[in-house]
Write a structure and sequence with these properties.
Oligomer: heterodimer
Largest sheet of chain B: 6 strands, mixed
Number of strands of chain B: 11
Distance between the termini of chain B: 22 Å
CATH architecture of chain A: 2-Layer Sandwich
Low-confidence stretches of chain A: none
Largest interface: A-B, 39 and 48 residues
Number of helices of chain A: 4
Strand content of chain B: 15-25%
Helix content of chain B: 40-55%
Bound molecules: zinc ion
Low-confidence stretches of chain B: none
Chain lengths: ~200, ~350
C-alpha cells in the first residue's frame, strides 16, 4: 500500500492500495497548523497498518512554503524509517485527477492562490497512459490575467487522490516527479541595508 | 529502563540542521549541516533560506547520524526535537520530521526547549570519555546569533528560570550587523576577531547597554546591543565625513570589548545576586576566545567556577536536544502529545511541551 501525504494547502494523510483505492484517510480542515496536525493525522492513518506501507507518496507543491515543507519532511522521514521508496507527486496533479474523476475533461487549468495577488497555475490538456491528466508544462506563479483561457479548477488536494496518482503512475511504469519542493519563487531576502545614524 | 535511554535528537531552530544520538549522556553521533554558506551572501540568517536548507538536509543527516552511532531506528528508546524557541518555519521542518520518525518507528516523542538544550550540552561527554557531573544550581549564559539569555538552572529536567535576555539583537547578531557596518563578511564573530588583532580595545569607548544605575532595577540581567551598533555606525560615518581612514582594528577591538564586558559583567553579577558560584557558558558565540578568556579571568577573583562545553556542543546541535530528552526520561517525564506545535518564543521555564 502507499502512504500519501500532502500539505500544500491544509494537511492530509491517506493510505491507498496498489490500485489506488482508499484504505484510510484523514484531513485537517485548517489551512495552517501543519506542524500540529501532521502527528495525529499520521498516527490515525498508520496505526496497525504500518507494516503494509510499501511506498510513500508526497505532494511537492506548489503551495505555501512553510506548510508544504512539514508534510514533505514527514513523508521523507517515514520512507527513510520504513526503508521504502519515495513517490513525489506534483500536488496539482492530484487536483487534476480529482477533477477528471468528477467528470471534467481536459483541457483545464488548476489554479491556486499564491498570495501577493498571484496564483499558482498548471495547465492540463490530455490524459496519460496511467489515466492521470498530464500537464502541458511546469506550474507557474503569476498574475491571474496571465493564466490561459481554459476552465479553472480550484480545489484542495485530497491526499487519497494524490496517493492514487502515485499508484496509477507507478503501475504504468511512469517515473515519479523530482523530489524537490516546487517553490516557484526565490526566497524572500529581507535584510535591511545599514541605515545612516548621523545627519 | 535498565540502561541509559538511547535517544535521537533533532534540532532545526536556526540555520543548523542538527541530528544527534546519545545513550544517556554519552554522545554517539552529532551530525550538523549548516546553511551558513548560503546565508553568507546576505550577511545574516534569512529564515526562508534556512527552512529550505533544513528540508534538504534532514533525511541525509538522519541517515548519517544513525550510521555514525552504529544503531538502527528500532534500537532507539525515544525521539526528541526542538519545539522552540527559534525561527518558526525552520522549527516546523524538524517537528514534522520528528513526529513522523516517532510514529513510523513507534517511539515516544519529547518536544523540548532549545535554550535548556544548550545547558544540557554541558553534561554530555564523548564516547569512551568519563561523564562529568554538573553541580546545581548553576547560572547559564547562552549567547548565539539567535539568543542572549541568562538562566538560573536549579534542575535541568524541570526547574529553569529566566533571569534576563536581550531586548533587541542577540549578541551574535550584533557581531554580524557590526561586521556589515565595517565592510566585513559573515559570520561576523571571526571576522571582527581577525580585524581586532593589534587594536586597542580602550581607544574608543563604546557604550555598554543597560548597565546604567537606572537599569539596575528592571533590566539588571537584560541585554541591549542596538545602542552599541549605532555607536559603531556613528564612528564609521564620522571617519567618512572627515575623510579619515577608519581605525578598523581599534573599532573592532572596542566593539568586541563592549559586548564581552557586558556579557561577563552581567553573568557574574547574576552569580553574586543568586549566590550561585558556578557559571556555564553555551551557544555559538562561546567560540569567541575573548569571551572565554574574559569570563575565566574575571570569574577567579569573583570565586566563580566557569564551565564551557566542547565547542561542537556549544553551537546548535542535535546531541544536546537528545541529551535533554534523555534527562527528561530519567526524570520520569511523560512524552509530549503528537499534536504540539512549534513555539518561536517558548519560555525557558517550559522545558518540554506537554
Ligand atoms: Zn542556540
Amino acid at each position: 500500500m502507499i502512504l500519501a501525504v500532502d500539505s500544500s494547502g491544509s494537511t492530509g494523510v491517506a493510505l491507498v492500495d496498489d490500485g489506488g483505492a482508499v484504505v484510510a484517510a484523514r484531513r485537517s480542515g485548517d489551512p495552517r497548523g501543519h506542524a500540529e496536525a501532521i502527528g495525529p493525522l499520521l498516527d490515525a492513518v498508520l496505526t496497525d497498518r504500518i507494516a503494509d506501507v510499501a511506498a510513500v507518496a508526497y505532494g511537492v507543491g506548489p503551495g505555501p512554503f512553510t506548510g508544504l515543507r512539514v508534510g514533505m519532511a514527514a513523508a521523507r522521514t517515514v520512507a527513510m524509517v520504513l526503508g521504502v521508496p519515495e513517490l513525489p507527486v506534483l500536488s496539482h496533479d492530484a487536483i487534476a485527477l480529482a477533477a477528471l474523476e468528477g467528470g471534467t475533461e481536459p483541457p483545464f487549468v488548476v489554479v491556486a492562490d499564491a498570495k501577493r495577488r498571484e496564483v499558482y497555475a498548471t495547465v492540463y490538456r490530455s490524459v496519460d497512459v496511467a489515466g492521470v491528466p498530464v500537464r502541458d508544462e511546469e506550474p507557474r506563479v503569476g498574475a491571474l490575467d496571465a493564466v490561459p483561457d481554459l476552465p479553472h479548477i480550484t480545489a484542495v488536494v485530497d491526499p487519497a487522490v494524490l496517493g492514487r496518482v502515485a499508484a496509477l503512475r507507478r503501475a504504468a511504469g511512469i517515473a515519479p516527479e523530482p523530489p524537490d519542493a516546487r517553490y516557484l519563487r526565490s526566497p524572500d531576502v529581507t535584510l535591511a541595508a545599514p541605515k545612516r545614524v548621523t545627519g | 529502563m535498565s540502561r541509559d535511554p538511547l535517544v535521537l535528537g533533532i534540532e532545526t531552530s536556526c540555520d543548523e540542521t542538527g541530528i544527534g544520538i546519545v545513550r544517556g549522556r554519552e554522545v554517539l553521533a552529532n551530525v550538523i549541516a549548516s546553511s551558513m554558506e548560503e546565508q553568507a551572501r546576505y550577511g545574516g540568517v534569512v529564515p526562508e533560506i534556512a527552512a529550505r536548507a533544513h528540508l534538504e538536509a534532514l533525511t541525509p543527516a538522519l541517515r548519517r547520524a544513525l550510521a555514525d552511532a552504529g544503531v538502527g531506528v528500532d534500537d532507539l528508546d525515544a525521539v526528541a526535537v526542538t519545539a522552540g524557541p527559534g525561527l518558526a518555519g525552520a522549527l516546523m521542518v524538524g517537528v514534522g520530521a520528528a513526529k513522523a520518525l516517532a510514529i513510523a518507528a513507534g517511539k515516544p516523542l519529547y518536544g523540548v526547549n532549545h535554550l535548556v538544550g544548550h545547558v544540557a550540552a554541558d553534561l554530555l561527554h564523548a564516547r569512551g570519555t568519563a561523564p562529568r557531573d554538573l553541580e546545581l544550581p548553576v547560572v547559564a549564559l547562552l549567547v548565539s546569533g539567535g539568543h542572549t539569555s541568562l538562566l538560573l538552572v536549579r534542575d535541568l529536567a524541570e526547574d529553569v528560570e529566566l533571569l534576563g535576555e536581550t531586548l533587541d539583537d542577540a549578541a551574535g547578531e550584533a557581531f554580524d550587523k557590526t561586521a556589515r557596518l565595517l565592510g566585513l563578511a559573515y559570520p561576523g564573530g571571526p571576522r571582527i576577531d581577525a580585524a581586532a588583532v593589534g587594536g586597542d580595545p580602550a581607544a574608543i569607548r563604546f557604550p555598554r547597554g543597560l548597565t546604567a544605575s537606572k537599569d539596575r532595577g528592571a533590566h539588571r540581567f537584560d541585554f541591549s546591543f542596538s545602542g552599541l551598533k549605532t555607536a559603531v555606525a556613528r564612528t564609521v560615518e564620522r571617519a567618512e565625513a572627515a575623510g579619515q581612514p577608519l581605525p578598523l582594528a581599534d573599532v573592532a577591538a572596542g566593539f568586541r570589548e563592549a559586548v564581552v564586558d557586558v556579557l561577563v559583567t552581567k553573568a557574574l553579577d547574576a552569580c553574586a545576586v543568586t549566590g550561585v558560584p558556578r557559571l556555564l557558558l553555551g551557544g555559538g558565540v562561546v567560540a569567541n576566545r575573548r569571551l572565554r578568556d574574559t569570563a575565566l579571568d574575571r570569574a577567579v577573583p569573583a570565586g566563580v567556577t566557569v564551565r564551557i562545553p566542547p565547542l561542537e556542543l556549544c553551537t546548535d546541535n542535535g546531541a544536546m536536544i537528545a541529551g535533554l530528552g534523555a534527562m527528561r526520561i530519567a526524570a520520569g517525564a511523560r512524552p509530549s502529545g503528537l499534536g504540539f506545535g512549534v513555539d518561536s518564543t517558548m519560555p525557558v521555564d517550559l522545558v518540554q511541551v506537554p
